[in-house]
Amino acid sequence: MSLVPVTPYTYTPLNLLKEGAIVNVYAVVKFFKPPYLSKGTDYCSVVTIVDQTNVKLTCMLFSGNYEALPIIYKVGDIVRFHRLKIQVYKNELQGINSSGFASLTFEGTLGTPVTARTSSKLFSFTAQDEKMVEALRVWASTHISASSTLVQLCDVQPMQYYDLTCQLLGKAEVDGTAFLLKVWDGTRTVFPSWRVSIQDLSFEGDLSHILRLQSLVIDILVYDNHVQVAKSLKIGSFLRIYSLHTKLHSVNTDTNSSLLRLEFHLHGGTSYGRGIRVLPETSSCVDQLKKDLEGADTAVNQPSNSTCESANEDNFELSNSGSGSVSLYEVERCQQVSATILTDHQYLEKTPLCAILKQKAPQQYRIRAKLRSYMPRRLFQSVKLLCPKCHSLQEVPYEDSLDKILQDAATKAPNSNLQDTSLYDSKVWSTEGQGGRQVAVHFVKNDNILPLSSECLILIEGGRLCEISKLSSKFHSVIPVRSGAEDLELLDLSAPFLIQGKVYHYGCKQCSSLKTIQNLSSLRNKGQWIPSTVAKVLGIVPLQYVFVMTFTLDDGTGVLDVYLKDSENFFKIPASEVLNDDDLQKSLETIMDMMCPPEIKIDAYPWLECLIKSYTVTIGTEQRICYQIFDTTVAEDTI
DNA sequence: GATTAGGGTTTG
């Protein structure tokens, strides 16, 4: 029923709101808390709206009458508020219902009928209204992302929050702070639902029907303020439960096996819009739900499907025997996008961390988990030098200690007998006021001709770190040397044996046996100063730059500390360059913040798919199992 | 007639 007003309503864009004004607005719902009983006398609903001006407004709406508050089902719905008062709270504009407040709510999806949801018996609705709704729908389609939390049970993952549309099958009060709801949506969860004991509880609902539906039914515990609402719910009614939390729980049955069970909790409070709303039978979301329920009911009642029916109920037992422990993930139908991907062994089936923790080493596993935390937190501390031969790890020398080593080597003046040989042309500079320090640069020739500086290897005697770093940006390669008895020789291997651009190449002190500089003559005609080749002719075992980090991984079934030891495959950032490159350091930080976002809860972290291998380490008399990531890389589209 | 809540997840 419509009533056309004498003067048409005018609607204020959200960027033109003024304190104290009472206005009419049209906007898209960006966030909302479904109506709940406040601590005062009224129901309250908090609604944040946004319009084409991209200005947001959070509105506090109160009413003693639940039905008088906006009938919002999801983010993206469109609302019309009449007589909204604008006030200031914490230096920001805020909307609040004023006398005579009224609202209409519309589906926000393009192409759906423009039907107003309202409890008002009389309300205006004109061609102008229809245009306003259509215009906001068009704008929202490119500016408001569809709700990612609205899912079916078959799509839920552990450790997330969801808005669930379902039918109530049974209920029971557990105690004053917890209330059990048994619901279904016609689809089956990947992991079977936990079962809350209803022994000694007064249960309302058709238990034989619930038993027949078996794993199609999930148990939800709602807490605190939601208990009152839950009590009043009618069996058979259609519900939307907002910000329902899923948790995977491993239940130990005996020493050798455990069961994985998916828990559903509606925690106390109204944060993030936590709450329950009853959906009328006539709403379009219920239409789809009813179809799903009918289809599932029919399938359950067909005996041919009975084997399928018991599938997820029975196959989730994990045992130490190995083969049985991975089958549970075969039924994982909904592959969520992962922030890391496997580069090999994709055939491996996933193993939950709780199963890995019970097994002996060595083994290889494919896992799916979240990065709860990592060490070291200061990323430059994660770069180390690794000897591929003796596997020893060492710190990358700091600039200060490196300069000290170079200064110590510069105390001895260059020997003029070792200058201008067939291998190189030499030039010597004297410094002023630096205790007579001399710097000799030996330009390595190619067929007795000096190559272009960009292709030229130079040997430097007496140079300081800043000088070497300047020269390394001009010349292809730099080797710090000193005058020996019969030939130029490399410095102690505490110093780099080769510098190319920003990369300082070090050798292993244990594994190298230094050879004479003259050996470079075997390489000079090739004009390619490849670090591994240079190292070889100089008798050096080159150290490899690696990221060494500890990842604390959590998949909801268990927590596992895993090492990452990687030169460039995992992050796709060369560990050898990151220390001297601000951009690469920023990239690394971005990747870590993506995998382990600061200041948000782990539920919202992305999943990581990883290959890990276990191995045994003996420390004294203690044997410990360690785990290392391999053949895994950060997915390109997540960076 | 004022108050309620004032978005930003429990810890069962």
TrEMBL record:
InterPro entries cross-referenced by the UniProt entry: NA-bd_OB-fold (IPR012340), POT1 (IPR028389), POT1_C_insert (IPR048953), POT1PC (IPR032042), Telomer_end-bd_POT1/Cdc13 (IPR011564)
A molecular function annotated in GO for this UniProt entry is: telomerase inhibitor activity
Q: Which GO terms describe its biological process?
A: regulation of telomere maintenance via telomerase; telomere capping
What Gene Ontology cellular-component terms does the record carry?
nuclear telomere cap complex; nucleoplasm
Q: Where in the cell is it found?
A: Chromosome, Telomere; Nucleus
**Domain Telomeric single stranded DNA binding POT1/Cdc13: where?**
11-141
Pfam families found in the cross-reference section: POT1, POT1_C_insert, POT1PC
Keyword Cell inner membrane on this protein?
no
CDD domains (alphabetical) = hPOT1_OB1_like (cd04497), hPOT1_OB2 (cd04498), Pot1C (cd20374)
Q: Which UniProt keywords apply?
A: Chromosome, DNA-binding, Nucleus, Telomere
Chief location of this protein? nucleus
Query: What domain of life is recorded for the organism?
Result: Eukaryota
Relate the assembly described in the record: Homodimer or homooligomer. Component of the shelterin complex (telosome) composed of TERF1, TERF2, TINF2, TERF2IP, ACD and POT1. Binds single-stranded telomeric DNA as a monomer. Associated component of the telomerase holoenzyme complex. Found in a complex with TERF1, TINF2 and TNKS1. Interacts with TNKS1. Forms heterodimers with ACD. Identified in a complex with ACD and single-stranded telomeric DNA.
Q: Which family does it belong to?
A: Belongs to the telombin family.
- Protein name as catalogued: Protection of telomeres protein 1
Question: What organism does this protein naturally occur in?
Answer: Mesocricetus auratus (Golden hamster)
Which gene carries the instructions for this protein? Answer: Pot1
